[in-house]
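Researcher: Here's a chain I'd like modeled. Treat it as a single chain, no partners, no ligands.
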Amino acid sequence: MDVAQTELKESQSVTTTPQKNKPRRRGRVELTIQEIIEKGESHPAPFRTMLLWSCLSGFLCWASFAPLAISPLAWIAPLPWLWMILSPQLSRRAYVASYLGGLCFYVPVLQWMRYGDPLMYIGWGALTFYLAAYLPIFIMLSRVAVHRWRWPLAIAAPVVWTGLEYFRGFFFTGFGWYYLGHSQIGWTELIQISDLVGAYGVSFVMMAVIGAVATKTSRFGFRRLGLSPKTVSDQANDQTMESATAACSPGTGKGLVFALILLLATLGYGFTRLQQADFQPGPRVALIQGNFKAALQTPHEEYEESYVVHNALTGMAVLHQPDIILWPEGMFRYPLFETEANMTDSQLRQVAPYWNPEQWRSDDVRNTLVSMSEKAGAAMVIGLATFSAKSTGVDQYNSAQFITPNDGLGLRYDKLHRVPFGEYVPGQDGLLAGMVPENFGLTAGTEAVPFDYQDWRFAPVICFEDTVPHVTRRITRSIENSSEKPVDFIANLSNDGWFAGSSEHDQHLVTASFRAVELRKPVVRAANMGISAVIDGNGRTIEPEVFLTKDPLTWQPLEISYRDPETGRLRRKLEAVVVQTVPLDSRGSVYLASGDWFAAACLFSCCAMILRLLDFRRTTPTKATKTNTTP
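Model: Modeled as a single isolated chain. Structure tokens:
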């Protein structure tokens, strides 16, 4: 007999009187609560019914994100999974159904991965199969909290969900996309709690509310999913069914009160923080957006074309007198070469046989970068590759180079957080040494670097670094800890040309918006193929003062709307210039100061649940008559 049945018997012996535990009669059917559970074991729920509802949940989750972005659906999509948690008994087939439901979410929502390269189909499949496993794990751990620890679902579900989101943000370098809270980017009051506990807090609040609703509707859910016994559902006394539901979902009233108070407090906090915003004008930035499809191998003839296009767009931007101009990641195709002091030509040939030593000595790239900044009369941040030769070999960095018109070449930031398999292979310097081609991938940078211009200080981040909460926070915090001067804004250089104008562009912008709220720092994004944007400290994408493209006939600057009037979507796959004054935010952030303490506490609770589950499986005796059910 499952532990849930044992606890149920104990709760009945304590909380019920002999009169209340007597069988109730309707026609010729006499059933106690315990008999309902036993009939559930002997008549397991139809797999097809559970699968249908679980897959519906997955598709509703997908529809709550871009490209459809019907955000209210995220408040009802997880209900079938939560009903599974509440069920007195759950067969192993239910976990299979939940896993397949997870695939119904992750397969379509991550379909943009396939655009990068034919090899990315493998990555797409591997990532979706991995992420879908979080659903059955969520159900299993939540059942431990509900059926063994007697937690209300409105507390158990958000704790487990948030803990798993946090784990997913760290494990295997982290995947910080498609958190439940991300679906609510348009509900500005709700997401302001992110400056306390990160985007994880929004997911927590949502799951608490959904958990309370699931508990109240569990009787309906059991029957829709086929979780109530077939021999009972049409004949048993309604009061008996309600008693069984109550026995398996403790603290119903308390959970509902908790969820309502939490939601109202979150909205009240959000409204207050929005009223406190007092944005002050910062630097005027120009974001240069090319439209080049990314590839693993860039044809050499595209080097010149990329330079010409971005240089022309920079000329268009200069007419609007920006203080700082940003080029996207890697869009200055000519690499920057640097060497250790006193390296000889023979040493260079030995460590870098594919390059002529004269390339390492040339100042052409440096002179070009300085000349561009001087002509523009503005500071520039340029995304390029850097090759650094030393006696032990050559390091290749994905870099953001800072240049000013007065001081020339300044500091350089080398990307810290690399994308696995895209920018490096995990273990290539250890277990997989010799199996990965030599010189494959990028070298990780060593430190966060501040860029200072006039009275402003900003923190550069590259590519997907702004999608992982703790990475952007760590970079910002590191810079602020190194001096008393705070970071005024975050500057992201990205190459989203891998993804062909798909929903990836929208979701990347969403994650950047949450970083702005979490840190209370505006974020500016220069992205190849888009979406280039300025985001204020409330997480709102600002309509730019100027949005330019080239007239297709005259090639003269043409001012157009920021949104495509035909689709209503922010423009992408377009050569463009965004000019906007950055709104500086003076509000502080608990999340920036304290980090992921809240989400980490939820993960700690999940670990305790795992230990409880393992302990139960180790100590429970095996019985020949035991049914094929799981906790």
